[in-house]
Automatic annotation (TrEMBL):
<dbReference type="InterPro" id="IPR052181">
    <property type="entry name" value="5hmC_binding"/>
</dbReference>
<protein>
    <submittedName>
        <fullName>EVE domain-containing protein</fullName>
    </submittedName>
</protein>
<feature type="domain" description="EVE">
    <location>
        <begin position="2"/>
        <end position="149"/>
    </location>
</feature>
<dbReference type="InterPro" id="IPR002740">
    <property type="entry name" value="EVE_domain"/>
</dbReference>
<dbReference type="InterPro" id="IPR047197">
    <property type="entry name" value="THYN1-like_EVE"/>
</dbReference>
<dbReference type="InterPro" id="IPR015947">
    <property type="entry name" value="PUA-like_sf"/>
</dbReference>
<dbReference type="Pfam" id="PF01878">
    <property type="entry name" value="EVE"/>
</dbReference>
Length: 151
DNA sequence: GCCAACGTTGGC
DNA sequence: GCCAACGTTGGC
């Protein structure tokens, strides 16, 4: 069992969007970074815990708890020429990009990025490091438990 | 809108 | 395999 932080732009999929979807679940499409893809492919298991993070928005921060509900499988958007995530080098025979499914566990209060920065217990989190851009990052179990205790 | 950081691309 | 150019991310 591992712990993850996954960034989503709320203008694309917010925590409330997730809550409104069938099964309160979504395919985590659009990951086009190999390191993030490899986390999904090689490490994510069903029931891994996810911190659902809102990025590129007015109030960046942790917005809820989720879980991995399906193992990695090919991301359909890579095959769709009309999709912004279309990848001409991907084929059904040799897909490049994968996604897991993520299911809502519970919406929480928003823990703003600013607050996350204030806790010495969380100072090593990947999202706080200079220049971090990865949209999927592993979270230490102690960090996860600490965050839970503050939500 | 700015800009630092960093990943990817492609010519050599 | 190097590396400059370019594109993207994401907080501010």
């Amino acid at each position: 069992m591992r712990y993850w932080l996954m960034k989503s732009e709320p203008s694309d999929v917010s925590i409330d969007d997730l809550a409104s979807f069938p099964n309160q679940s979504v395919a985590w499409y659009g990951i086009r970074n190999y390191q993030a893809r490899n986390f999904m492919r090689d490490q994510m298991q069903v029931d891994d815990a996810v911190l659902f993070y809102h990025s590129s928005c007015d109030q960046p921060g942790i917005a809820g708890l989720a879980r991995v509900s399906r193992l990695a499988y090919p991301d359909e958007t890579q095959f769709d020429t009309s999709n912004k995530y279309f990848d001409p080098k991907a084929t059904h025979e040799t897909p490049r990009w994968l996604n897991v499914d993520v299911q809502l566990v519970k919406k929480t209060r928003l823990m703003p990025l600013k607050e996350i920065r204030e806790y010495p217990e969380l100072e090593h989190m990947r999202i706080l490091q200079r220049g971090n851009r990865l949209s999927i990052t592993p979270v230490d179990p102690r960090e996860y438990e600490f965050i839970l205790s503050k939500l």
